[in-house]
Design a protein that fits this description.
Layout: E1 14-16, E2 21-23, H1 26-33, H2 36-57, E3 59-63, H3 71-78, E4 84-90, E5 95-100, H4 103-111, E6 114-116, E7 119-125, H5 143-157, H6 163-174, H7 178-195, E8 203-207, H8 209-212, E9 222-227, H9 241-266, E10 272-278, E11 285-290, E12 295-300, H10 304-316, H11 323-336, H12 349-361, H13 371-376, E13 385-386, E14 389-390, H14 408-420, E15 427-430, E16 435-438, E17 443-444, H15 451-454, E18 465-466, H16 490-510, E19 539-548, H17 555-576, E20 580-583, E21 593-595, E22 598-599, E23 601-602, E24 608-619, H18 628-636, H19 645-658, E25 668-677, E26 682-689, H20 694-718, E27 723-725
Parallel strand pairs: 9-12, 17-18
Antiparallel strand pairs: 1-2, 3-5, 3-7, 4-5, 6-7, 8-9, 10-11, 11-12, 13-14, 15-16, 19-26, 19-27, 20-24, 21-22, 23-24, 24-25, 25-26
Length: 726
Amino acid sequence: MDKVKKKATYMEKQFCAVCNIRVDRHSSMEQHLNGKKHMSLLNKAQRKRRIEEQACSEGVYITGIPTSVSNTTLLEYFKSFGQVVAIQRYEKDNQTLLQFKLRKQAHAALKSSHHVGGSELVVRPRRAVQHQTTVPKDGVVSHIEIFKNALEESMKTNPEMSIDEQIRSLVTVLEVTEEEKRRQSQIISTLEEWLSLEFPSCRLHLFGSSVSRLDFRGESDLDIFMETPTNASIPSVREPFSFQEETLKKQRENVLDVLRRASNIIRRHPDVSDLFVISNARIPLLKFVHFPTGIKCDLTCNNIIGVQNSKLLFSLQSFDIRIRPYLYALKFWAKSHRLISSPESSLSSYALTLMAVYYLQQMDPPLIPSVESLQSAVPVEERMSCNGWNISYKVPSVAGSINTEITIMDLLIGFFRFYRNLNASEMVVCPLQGKLVPKTDFKDSTHPVKEELSCDNENRDLRPPLKLSLLCVQDPFQLDFNICFNFRHFELFQSLCESAEHTCLRILEVKKEARVLDLFKTTVKTKFSAAKVVESPLKSSIFLRFQPIHDGASPEQAENLIRSVGQFIGSLFSFSYGIQFEENTQIKKKRKQMNSDFSILHDENGSLLKWRTNYLMTVPFDVCTNKREGLLASQVLLENDAKSLLDRERAITSLLSCTSPENVTPYAVVNFSMSYDVGPLVVSLHFGNTVSPKTFFLKLVTDFRRCVSKSVEDHLIENKLQYKLK
């Protein structure tokens, strides 16, 4: 049977300029044009065109201006036609763009003749900028591949390059050019001039990777901070809780108002497109694109801390010549594996850089000092603050001695090894102190207590607040900000660190044929699984602080007080409240490690200074119900006045247990521990949630805070102990 040869039919592809895609068949094009995505993009493009047409109808171009005529003279002349909201002068073309507030004002200026400075000015309408969409090209190579190819070419010319030389060569390929820096400065100056009429004394400053000098060639966006007189209203002293919340709320409203006013001006700029305001971000910002260069810009107006952070990262690079290539290599590695600058990952470039800085702080000896030591070098009269946070620092002009034995590759291996083994579930990365800090030293601000409790002078929790997550990295200036709070892929990060460490060790073993590019090659696409949000366990503490009624209390009396209060609280819970305890750790009168963050301490005479006991507490029912005061007054005290305090409390519990149903699930099951400190005279009750509902746990701790404090006060009076609660 003869084979029938089919003619190859050529299907011409049609191009949709709105969606920037090609469509195969005519029927598919009709289906595409009626699709939701196309209609949404079409409406967006039409709305954008209307905004541009309105901006063009309100603007005029002026030529023939004498060089002796200043912008102020032009504004004085043209304000007779209406309010001028923006002005942009182009010295190279000898023309000026004036933007009026209303269309009719621009039309009035176009109809009139103008003579300024002895010369006749030519006024013509502003034309719309053609924002054309380019046809997509097949096989577009990403910037990552371009960088890799350029690095391979540079290594071909010098095959004997050492590994550190290869990394430094990588920096020359990645860093931005002088032409890009010039364009960035030009964007800032033109926007500053455009905003000068609406905000007469405003200044625009760059921050982010453009200031830290860790930006990538042709890829980095511009982070812009607009400094206005309204920024001067930021308080320099931390205010009480309620006043601080009210002040911050008012500041946020002012920031949003400034951003909306700025957006109304910037959207009329001929070189700006795709502008919108993100008002629900932690720091509200204005996003837009500078069309001639394609650079994406983010503008904020209340982010002085961000500016200082960027300057700090730049200043820290002066401590050692290896720091900058080390940071560049880490950023390039993370970008190659889509850990940063990727929609799948929420790890910011700033967070990764700060993690890299912290590793250098904890080295022995440290390559970078702690931020705290840099802040202490600033005189008090020169210190800067924002919202009460200390944002000043001083880097010494002469760096310390350089240990030449450590290579850049050694620093990379150390970084990967450190974070591969980091116990992130228990520790917080703290660049301020240059060390790891236990999470128990912080109060989780994602589970705030009631305001009246946080303002309680007697029993307040003095731990600093921080939003806790699986990976916690504390900002060195804004100390209540966890910059990795939204990062949900730390386990993947650790596995990539382990793989990168093995790759680096293999590169060192090969030597002659070693290529640092192997570190940045990704044979398998990084998989970002939908990680479950692991909530930090609920924790809370009650601190009972004592002070002697009379001066001259001996250390023995202090130790006896702490022991007496500890035994009373234990008896109060077990005997009076009927709470079951299962002791997890036995106390022995010798120095030994109790757990990861506490040990028994003795003084020279062998007396106990600090100790701790751990229990699993099972609360049978709500022993601190609101009926407690009524029962105490009406049925117990009058009949049992001669009994001890513990007996009276037990009688109250017995009456309450009658109203509680039997054979039911316990009211709460929590991890409980009591720690004792003879030095400052503190007995601390620590509660950690296990299987109890969150609402029960918070209510339990709140009620215990109230009831235990009252009972301890009665215990001090009843036993005539010469101490009182602070």
